[in-house]
Amino acid sequence: MPFMIENLSSLAGRAISPLISPFKNRTKRPQKVKKILVVKIWATGEVLLTTPALRTLRRLFPNAEINYLTGIRSSPIIATNPNINRILTVDESIFISLNPIKIMQLMLDLRKQDYDLCILFHHSFAFALIFRIICSGILAGINRRGEGALLNYSTEYDETIHQADEYLNVVLSLGGKPEDKGLEIFLTEKVTNKVEKQLKDAGISEKYIVIAPGGGDNPKTKMPNKLMPINKWNALVQKLCSLSIPILIIGSKSDRKRARILASLSSNITDITGKTTIPEVSAVIKCSRLLITNDSLPLHISSAFKTPTIVIFGPTNPVRYGPYKNDNSIIISPRVKCAPCYRDGYLENCVRMICWEDIDPEEIMQFVKEKLNLVR
C-alpha cells in the first residue's frame, strides 16, 4: 500500500508540476534567515546521514535558530547535536496511516512558527505539498517526483551519489560551501561512562567484536530482504567464535529472534539486542575492535566514529547507502547482474534472491582476519 501511495504521489506530482511551476516564487540566495525548519521524519540511519548537511547549514547561517522535525524513534541520534537549537518530534504513524486530523494539527502548529526557510529531506510530492503550505518562507529540497515545482531551491535526485551527499547538495544549493568531513554523533560523558561500566561488569574488558545481524525495520517499511539470511550469519558466527574474541550482538527488539539463535552458539557471545538506547549502542560501536553488519543503522554509526567495519550488502546499493567517508570499512556485495535491485524499500519480481546466494561467509571471515591483523 505505501508503494502504491508513493506511485500515485509521483504521478500527481508530474501532472501538476507544469501547472504550478510558472507561478513558483524563485528567489536568489536567502537573506536574513532567522528561523529554519529541517524535516526528516523516519529512518534513523537516514537522519544520521543529514548531519553533514546540518553542519554546513549552521556554518551558512551561524546565528539562525535551527529546528529539526523528526520521528520519535529517530530523534535520539541527533538529540545532542550542537547544530540544532530544538528537536521537534512527531509520531511517524500519522503520515503512514494518513491521519488527516493529526496532520492538519501539525501543519497549523508549524505554520504559526513562521519559518524563513524549510529544508525537506524526503522524496515525496505529498510531503512537498504539505510543507509548501506550512512554510511561509523559502522551501528547499530534492526533486524526484515533481516536487521541484513546489520548491524554491531544489537538487535533482541521483542514485549514483551517496544519500548523505544528496542531502548536503540541498544546502549547497542555498549557498553553503562544500566540506570533507563525515557523519557526526555527539555522545555525552554520562552515556560513555555508563556503557564502559556495563561492559566491565559483564566481564568484557578487552576489545570486542560487534555484530548486527538484524535491521531493516523502520516505521515506514519493513525490509527483511536487506538482511543476510540467518543460516549464513550462523556459519559466519561459528567461524568468529574460533578467534576467542568476545562478541556482542546489537539490534532492536525486532532483532531478538535472530540474536537468540546466534547467541546460543557460544558462551563467548553477549546478546544486548533491545537492551540499549541509540546513544548507548553508538558508544558500544565506538569502543569496539570491529563491527560486522547488514545494510542498517550500525554501519552509519560506525562511519561517524571511523570504526573498522565490514558491511554485507545484498539487494541494496552500497554506492548509495554504504559507509560514508569511513576509509576503515570493507563492503561485501554480490557479483550478480541483477543487484542492486532495491528501490524505496521494495523488490520487484524477485523470487529467488540470488544476490544472497553469492555471499560467502568464508570470504567475509578472510576480511575479518585482515581487519584484526590476524592474517599470516
The CATH topology of the largest domain comes to Rossmann fold
Task: Using the coordinates above, name the CATH class of the largest domain.
Answer: Alpha Beta
Q: Please indicate the percent range of residues in DSSP E strands (runs of 2 or more).
A: 5-15%
CATH homology superfamily of the largest domain: Glycogen Phosphorylase B
Calculate the terminal CA-CA distance, rounded to whole Å.
52 Å
How would you characterize the largest beta sheet? 6 strands, parallel
Give the helices and strands as they follow along the chain.
HEHHEEHHEHEEHHEHEHEHEHEHEHH
Structural class of the secondary structure composition? alpha/beta
Helical content class:
25-40%
The residue-averaged pLDDT reads 91
What does the model show?
This is Lipopolysaccharide heptosyltransferase II. InterPro entries: Glyco_trans_9, LPS_LOS_Heptosyltrfase. The chain is an alpha/beta fold and 376 residues long. The protein has 2 domains: 2-172, Glycogen Phosphorylase B (Rossmann fold), CATH 3.40.50.2000; 189-371, 3-Layer(aba) Sandwich (Rossmann fold), CATH 3.40.50. The protein is 37% helix and 14% strand. It has 15 helices and 12 strands. The protein has helices at 2-20, 44-48, 51-60, 93-96, 100-111, 125-134, 163-172, 189-201, 230-241, 256-263, 278-286, 297-305, 318-321, 354-357, 361-371, and strands at residues 35-39, 65-71, 86-90, 117-120, 138-143, 153-156, 209-212, 247-249, 269-271, 290-294, 309-312, 329-332. The strands form 2 sheets. The chain has a 6-stranded parallel β-sheet, with helices on both faces. A 6-stranded parallel β-sheet has the order 9-8-7-10-11-12, with helices on both faces. Helix 6 links the parallel strand 4 and strand 5. Helix 3 runs parallel beside helix 7, helix 5 (100-111) crosses helix 6 and helix 11 packs across helix 12 (297-305). The longest helix has 19 residues, at 2-20. The N and C termini lie far apart (52 Å).
